[in-house]
Structures
1.
Amino acid sequence: MADWNDFQKWLQDSVFTPLEDRKMPVMEHLVELQARLTRTVLVVGVVFVGTFFYADALVQWLRVPLQNAFIPGKLQWVPTDLPVVPFVFLAPAEALWQNVKVAGLFALVLATPHVLWEVWQFVVPGLHAQERRFVGPFVLLSTLAFYTGIGFSFFFVLPFALNFLISYGVNAGFIPQLSIAQYVGFALWFLLVFGMIFEVPLAITLMAKLGWVDVPFLKRYRKWAFLGAFIVAAILTPTPDPFNQCLMALPMYVFYEVGIISAGFFRKKPAPGSEPDTTGDAAHRPVAATPVMSDDPYVSVPGSGRRG
């Protein structure tokens, strides 16, 4: 325990204290912001050059959930009963533009650690030492949650949704033939939305840690959260069908419940001395009545200290 306390003291003195905010003029903040944005754009641009060379392979990977299903027990993809679905492009530059879009999105995803690092370095001088201790792990966990949401959507949600939608059209007698732009937009949007959905418990936990919400507040608004999940899903769903709306809304609400549990563990601790003493004789000690002036129409509750 002594070694742990020594390590915490060393961490505070060597890492957190030197980062304490120094008073900077507004122009210095703007210059620093410009420099960090420039570095971020350059890093994303360099990664984009690499991903663009593999854009065709990335598009092929995006096509995997269309006619395959992932089997967790075997850790492999197996073909479904869907017929071969050909892809077409309806504009001369549509195929090229989809490669650019896919390469750009994957470049942004791969460069996310550097982007978060630049954001962290920009905001950390304005944070107190106790805030930095949980904001740092929060940034790391939010990155992992975003990647986990993308992976969950790619391996489970996207194949299920595509198989249902294409099968419905085939059973209705239509011939499946997809535009590359429509399919790529549908797949990328699904991946991004589920990456954000997996951030819901962390966002609720952070708000509880900052004292903005608490568990009774979150429980009180459960039904509104359920309704809000379906409204948000209706806005974010790339297709108007209720099937995909449910695929997004139900996980969103489940993660809201997970956030309630997490908020109970990581809630903001009350300041010492802020809670009333209810132990011993203090709980049975009579409370003196608050004197009320005759011209005051409000009668205060004993012990509340409230005046009109």
2.
Amino acid sequence: MVEFTLDGRTVTASDGELIVHAAARHGTFIPTLCHDDKLDPYGGCRMCVVDVEGAPRPMPACATRVAEGMAISTNGQITDYQRTLTEMLLSEHLNASPGGRPNELRDLATELGVDAPVILPDAKREEYDDRNQLMGYDPDACILCARCVRYTQEVMQCSALSLEGRGGHSRIVPTWGLSWLDTECELCGGCLSTCPTGAIYEKFEEGTERPESALEEVRTTCTYCGVGCQIDLKLDPGTKHIVKVTSKDEYLPNEGNLCVKGRFAFNFVHHPDRLTRPLVRGEDGELHPTTWEHALETAAAGLRKVIDEHGPQAVGFLSSARLTNEENYLIQKLARTGVGTNSVHSCEST
């Protein structure tokens, strides 16, 4: 442990702890935009700068570690510096969140009392569209903090996104200018979740004026596999339909990370074609509603007929990706001991 001074108070921190984390533990909020606890220290936007006694210039709290005897100030002239930085970022941030996602920059501007400056007509960046149906990107809502790029590299271990262009024409695009569908991207939406301005957003929410904060939130467990990722279902307050799925960093075991199914594959819940009762095909060749008892009896009779005529190896079992590990275990038990076949598989990657 080391002792240091924070705004005149003597406090302690773990040796080598980042200033932004140590300050937060002691109740002092330091604004950040390019920082994400999942990512390596970056210090790109400089929004988190603090005065450190003896340092020749303000230091980024998200990339500077606490040392014994350090004297840190987070107010005074630093606040003016943050206002200036916010105004400069707003000059490049031409659009609000296209999909109603949270916007940390706009929230910070409101807190600091900063108004958006006058925008020059030629300040707009070249528009970008992608043929994938899940995620969109608005360059004019982007502040080039590179959180999304670093997330793909450091967390997902792939090169799905990169920075393109120079100066005011810079923007973030899938690597080599390809579609998201043609890169290493798995469409997990992690880049979307880490974006501080909502420049990357859910395409199905594009154009909505409803902020995410207006949605109801229900915490639950994703049912797509046996990992047990914790998710938040965002519900429309009126219809109670699921609008989007998010997750928080403090949730275990996924720490806020989701796969493409967990984040985007929720439309089946309210789909008009979703089956809500068992169906059995009648002699007319059509499916007809029936009871669970009759449906199970019909399925058992059909399996027995195939086994009697062609042997147990003529039967295969494919279990759903939405089953738990325990349920998948029961499926293979039924296949091997009940029917006598080893032809059993689950499309679940885990």
3.
Amino acid sequence: MKFATLAVHAGQRPDPQTGAVNVAVSLTSTFQMDGIGKLRNGFEYARSDNPSRRALETTIAALEGGKHALSFASGQAASTAVLDLLEPNDEIVTTSNIYGGTYRLFHKVYQKYGITVRVAEKTTPESIQAALSEKTVLVWTESPSNPLLTLLDLAETAERIQKFRNKKGEKPLLLVDNTFPSPAFQNPLALGADIVSHSCTKYIGGHSDVIGGAVVVNDETLWQQLKFYQNAGGAVQGPMDCYLLQRGLRTLPLRMKKHEENAYRVAEFLRGHAQVEEVFFPGFEDFPNHQLVAKQMRGLPGIVSFKIRGDLETVHRFFAGLRLFILAESLGGVESLLCHPASMTHAALPESERQKVGITDNLIRLSMGIEDADDLIDDLQNALEIVNN
């Protein structure tokens, strides 16, 4: 089945007993057993497994082209499960272009357990390869990155990592955070990644009404390890949240096309405005590594970042002039949102690190919803005129 069909049917067949078309919300904490050690359909306790969660995990795995998916209470909970695979003295290699919450998790939580973080000099396969050491167990990447949409050649990165062996004699695991493109537009497992992670709160849910996370893998042993941490740690998705994410997935292909269409329109408008200093959007042919869009993606997320001409006070005036775009954390919903990365999503980074990456006080990130693009452009135009006056 093709992607749009999988989004509607994978893990979502009618109930064999009742004929219900939608997957039932399984509101139970425990399950009857048929005897000591005899589980009915594999269910014992809802933290370990639940019919609603199993259905969602089946759908996400199918959409990512993976064998196994695990659902978590948030994207950060999913990240934590992956990091629990590491041991003291292990090393993570990453890039400077990562979500601020991931940076916080690395530096404020796991470093105190003896896990070190090495940042590649550039977001390139060559630079990531050069950063590998005998202690490297995990390589953590994003493409496109948050918030500057930096692109990384995932297939070449995976190929370079494949040739490396750490002191354990193992190849480092390659994780790709696929939140921005969603499985509709990119499938990192097919490009050589070992683990794909998601903040399902974003495009997978799509309606700004649920928090969730997921990881997807092909390797059986890795899946068993992650499933152990999912059960042991217990940061699992509740059945109602699973239902909401499942519902969101059914329209993911349609929504992503509209998000992308609006992003192209808005990016072109901003690029031509005198009050805009710089626009970050991989759809532009002169965007760094633009060729990777065609090489490893089927489309672009509805994210456009830009630098407004002016200072923080200018940003405040611009925000105050908007009527449709909502100032809020998160992205990927049906409504258009905007945020100030320096003080919101990436506030965990020291100012020196933010400046080095390019997350300046005049940087703004837009998340296009599914409204009419003309209305979104009018809203931005009006706010920019207020700033200009």
4.
Amino acid sequence: MESPTAASGVTDPVYVVMAKRPEVGRTKTRLSPPLTLHEAAALYEAMLRDTIELVGALASARLAIAVTPPEAADDIARISPPGTLLVPVAGSDIGDCLNKVLTSLLASGSRAAFAVNSDGPTLPLVYLEGAQEQLKQADVVLGPSEDGGYYLIGLKQPHSGLFRGVDWSTERVTVQTLERAESLGLRVAQLPPWYDVDTAEDLERLRMELRSLPADALVHTRRFFDRQQVVSPTDL
């Protein structure tokens, strides 16, 4: 397992999965019900694993994982592919963590750094690939989430001001980030919107989408549903 400084001189873009330690009673609690708190934490771990594999499939890009809290780094390392950059991070809020991680990765020699959320595992790979192309003509690339946040942000240079004055974990995140970018004179490119799995409705959408995907897709999330007796929101 490498650290960001170990990548000194590397120019390939880097995609960093923003990971949290799965904790019962603290992770994905909005999914309970229909899930139990134990199931909600287990589902998050499954989605995290699938997201790591999704990002790891990108050609000509490095995989990194930002770990919160920092003391969970060893746990995340055990589910990470060889050669993954591991970035323990602590911050006052989500924006502080994003800023620290992206700044660190850009300083390590990557020509571009993209932060990706860990709870939207069905995100099409083409969206991640498109982020690199979009960033060539912009200062910032955003992948807006349907709930008002974003599933991806990419930079070529640090811009700490992008992460200030934002009401994190609300439906105003993308709008406020765009406002911050405009005030800083930054050009923004946007990817197609996608969804995070935060609510019972999102959970049902994920289950339905799995039915249309190849059997070898999202193996960890699929295994979770196969092993759990999950109640559909329509049955509540």
